Amino acid sequence: MPVTAAVAQFAGARGYDESVQPVSQVATGQQYPLAGAREGDTVTVVRTKGTQDMRQHLAEMGFVEGAQVKVVSRVNGDMIVSVKGAKFGINRQLTSHIMCR
Description:
Layout: H1 3-14, H2 25-28, E1 32-33, E2 42-48, H3 52-60, E3 68-75, E4 78-83, E5 86-90, H4 92-95, E6 98-100
Antiparallel strand pairs: 1-6, 2-3, 2-6, 3-4, 4-5
């Protein structure tokens, strides 16, 4: 039996509904990394994490407390975001350092 068929059989036996999508973290109002936002979400930056150099770099790009960030596109954890009128391509590492609500 192929692996995907075995997984599907296991999920069906356990009562998992594959049509259920995870709730966007934006809807919950909790603080989470930008990496958790979905395409089309607009979030507010709460804080940034990392070394002083990392936080300074993010601030220079516009990722400061209160900034609105729109996720334009998302592929494999990398994102194209719009912040303060500019669009940036940022990788998974950077998105994990930007805490949002």
